[in-house]
Amino acid sequence: MQKYTSISIRKRLLAMIILVTFFLSLLIIRLLYLQVFAGPNISSRAYSQWLRDLPLRASRGNIYDRNGALLASSHTTFDIYVRHADIVSEQRCATLLSSACGLDYEDVLEKVQKRGYSEVLIVKSQEKEVVNKILESYEEGIFFTENTTRDYTYGDLLTQILGFVSSDGNGQGGLEAEYNKYLKGIDGLNMVESDLKGTTLSNSLSYYVNAIDGLNLTLTIDLRIQREVESILSAARLENGAKSASCIVMDPQTGEILAMSSKPSYDLNDVPRDDIETLLNLSKALPITDAYEPGSTFKVITTAIALNEGITSKHSYYYCPGYRIVNGVRINCHRRSGHGSQSLQDGLNNSCNCVFMEIVRQIGLEKFYRYLEAFGISTGYNLDFPGEGKGVLMPKSLVKDGDLFRMGFGQSVTVTQLGLINSVCAAINGGRLMQPYFVKQISGESGVLYEKQPTTLRQVLKESVSKDLDPMLNEVVSKGGGKHAAIAGYDIGGKTGTAQKYENGAIAEGKYVASFMGFYPTDTPRYCVLVVIDEPQGAYYGGVVAAPVAKSVFEAIFKVCETPKNENAEEQEKLLEANIELPSFVGMTLTEAARKITSMGLQYLTTGEGTYVKDQLAAPGSMVFEGSVVLLMF
């Protein structure tokens, strides 16, 4: 019995030792885990319990134009906080802050008295003068942190392109959003040791982490041209009562965007944040985002394709009876009485639809689509800008002959303004489709970190095509429908465009898009200009509405870039003189009016239906130059 008891005690002792050893092992393992593996995380959490931090905003990078002119910058402002645990007198604190910041006393007092928070924000983005006023009568418990406020040097300029920033300094739209990660920098911190209530500990340590300022952007935009374009567009929109007026100026050789604007817009220093619908509408960069039917400006692309395929030339002849019957459907030329027999050059000058219906028929659907895709019409260009839109091509399987014929003169196909101008640039620069872009350089304190080089996306056309096409488009301006864009002493090429608008799949009565595409010089183009006037009131033809606006843009470019006139300036000046006085054509039939207009060396367009002319543009008594277009209204 004694022996049995001795064995039992030893077993219990052994079990106890094993149990104690097991728990000691668990304790050691737990301590090892807390010290070695979880230590950094626990230390960080501990620090967060006794450190109070206030942010130090990094200064957002500047934005410059191509010549170094400052477009957007930031200056230091201050956010004002209170720490309730450090406040000596809530009433004195509230009185000081409300007086210095121009705030309601009761609202400030409510914030000052708020408990349960270590810091409470009183107001953001205060100027240094306000801070100095507070410091003159400083009360315990008031703290300041540096912030930055965005300044746009020219306010209502490049509104949609630059974009703006949110209250926390992040880019909202435009280049501010596209390049936000480069512009914003890295915020710093100002930390102090405090107790559980948030009271700063005596003899506490302060930790200061410097902010890293953002990088700077240098754009392709030329401020001198941009300012002129914006002023011209604002005037054109008001003069024509238009829904909007847009313009792009691009270097065809590089793809650099020298100017871009759409009116109406708003002041970037006074963003309408309280009216979201207005803000969204006015923030859209229409030349980049929205697609539209281009009308006759698209004939430049159709011509370039036909020249590249060798199926037409300047001296190829076509016949225009005023319409074409396609699968039983009548497709009209804009001159319903017809242009008769004419060359390709005449067809461009007169913007004859029948000529381009025949040309696109010869090109064929497969080839035509292959070229349009090569031009990037429906794919875009990977522009360094958010929300780049794309044109729309009908699925080939759904395209009827009538659709193809309309595409030849710019209907039944949509493009963005950027897509159209970039495609035309390829047609006039030797066949190279360039990648358009806004940002030339990204730089910091250490110098240039990135520099964009012009990029050829692909060779779309043979170089010889531009040598044939450019002088033909020059004649459109010097003798044809683009004469309102002509400037004596400068060889400008171009093409007008007028397109009807559609709503819910039907033609929108009385709504048109007038446009003009032009370039200079015609031998080696350096400036390509597209002007689009959306829904002008009254006159709506591109040659009448948009061409004069483009002329103003070219005149501004020549002035600011100090471009000299050519040696034929005096001779061209005489050709462009308004030397024909218009009689009245009101009450005449189309046949009578047409005979008289053509005998005077003028051209005519018609609108409306009827037997007799009811009105005309230009008005009787107006002085016009040879080759001008008279609009007859029935």
Description:
The chain has 634 residues and is an alpha+beta fold. The protein folds into three domains: 52-219, Penicillin-binding protein 2a (Domain 2), CATH 3.90.1310; 223-267 and 283-442 and 452-576, Beta-lactamase; 578-634, Trypsin Inhibitor V, Chain A, CATH 3.30.10. 36% of the residues lie in helices and 25% in strands. The protein has 21 helices and 30 strands. The strands form ten sheets. Strands 2, 3, 4, 5, 10, 20 and 21 form a seven-stranded mixed beta sheet that branches. Strands 12-11-25-24-23 form a five-stranded antiparallel beta sheet, with helices on both faces. The protein has a three-stranded antiparallel beta sheet with strand order 1-8-9. Strand 2 and strand 3 (70-82) form a beta hairpin. Helix 3 packs across helix 4, helix 12 crosses helix 18 and helix 14 crosses helix 16. The longest helix is centred in the first third of the chain and has 36 residues, at 2-37. It is elongated and about 130 Å long. Mean pLDDT is 88; it is low at 46-51.
Secondary structure topology:
Layout: H1 2-37, H2 39-50, E1 51-56, E2 63-64, E3 70-82, H3 90-101, H4 105-112, E4 120-126, H5 128-136, E5 142-152, H6 159-162, E6 164-165, E7 171-172, H7 174-178, H8 180-183, E8 188-193, E9 206-209, E10 216-219, H9 223-240, E11 244-250, E12 257-263, H10 276-283, H11 286-289, E13 291-292, H12 299-309, E14 317-320, E15 323-326, E16 329-332, E17 340-343, H13 344-350, H14 353-363, H15 365-374, H16 401-408, E18 415-416, H17 417-428, E19 432-434, E20 439-444, E21 447-451, E22 456-459, H18 463-478, E23 493-503, E24 506-520, E25 527-534, H19 542-560, H20 569-575, E26 580-581, H21 590-599, E27 603-607, E28 615-617, E29 623-624, E30 629-633
Parallel strand pairs: 2-10, 27-30
Antiparallel strand pairs: 1-8, 2-3, 3-4, 3-5, 6-7, 8-9, 10-20, 11-12, 11-25, 13-18, 14-17, 15-16, 19-22, 20-21, 23-24, 24-25, 26-29, 28-30
Helix pairs in contact: 1-2, 3-4, 3-5, 9-19, 12-14, 12-18, 13-18, 14-16
